[in-house]
Amino acid sequence: MIGGIKIVNQTEQLKNQVKELEEVLKKLDKQLFYLRNMQGITIRICKQKSGYQYYKTDDNGKRVYIKHKDKEIVRKAFQKSYYECVRKEILTQKYQIERFLKFYNPTAIEDVYDKLCDARKELVTPIICTDDDYIEKWRQTHPGEKNTFPIDGQFVTDNGEYVRSKSEKILADLFLKMDIPYIYEPEVELSNGHKACPDFLVLNKRTRKSYYWEHFGRVDAEEYAIRNFPKIYAYEKIGLIQGKNLIISMETEKQPLDLKLVNEKIEMYLM
User: In which element (H, E) is residue 63 found?
Assistant: First the structure.
């Protein structure tokens, strides 16, 4: 839909790329230092039926055949030449990225709309809508609380929703605290025509990618596992794949929800 486009700010990724290139450059210079005694040695290659012959030029400009036992000289000379070419390419890439960053404005397209007067904004549909507008449309497209099964207990999230377990409340409150838009118990249609309601639909605001989050609360209970694990297979059949667009958390009676692991998944997929 128009307005659903999201230009991701790549500044940090590009700065990290520069740092990585600088690290490679340091290692490369160290290797070139070890090969400094190969400076000025030029190797010529002659192709033969049996393979290749290598020659170097002596002080008088005469080609001298390099014997097989001295082939290490060839290897070092070629390695040094390769390193020098790579070094040149790294410097070029580093310069190009740094020059790009100098003029890079990730909000330039959004700024065009922001600079319009209010009278124009009322009649113009922006190519890139604001996060708030996108989230509102996202919520309208994915209505929540579709599970008609009665909710037992009195677990109320900080956002005022009734949820089915303490762990679901913990997750919902964590999403709210970290400003991650979420929808509780949206509905998906399975391949057999039946409906299912994953625990949450969550949104990465930076990339505007949605993920379903399913929490399995009693994986150590046989009856619970038998009833709930087929969900994973059913989700896969409609394209919901763990790590791609499905996030799973779980716990047992003796091992409660691991908040460290939950935070790692949030950092990996939703930030």
Answer: strand 63-65
Instruction: Note whether 158 and 170 are within 8 A (CB).
Output: no
pLDDT in tens, 65-100: 888 888 898 889 899 999 999 999 999 999 999 999
Strands 209-216, 246-250: pairing is: parallel
Query: What's the per-residue H, E or C state across 119-172?
Result: HHHCCCCCCECCHHHHHHHHHHHCCCCCCCCCCCCCEECCCCCEECCHHHHHHH
What is the tens place of the pLDDT at every residue in 90-128?
999 999 999 999 999 988 888 898 899 999 988 988 888
C-alpha–C-alpha distance, residues 172 and 200, integer Å: 8
Tell me how far CA of residue 107 lies from CA of 9, 175, 206, in angstroms: 8, 26, 13
Strand partners of residue 55: 44, 65
Determine if the pTM surpasses 0.70. Answer: no
Q: What is the CA radius of gyration of the chain?
A: 30
Tell me how far apart the alpha carbons of residues 160 and 251 are, in angstroms, rounded to a whole number: 24
196 phi and psi angles, rounded to 5 deg: -135, 155
> What is the C-alpha separation between 146 and 221, in angstroms, rounded?
26
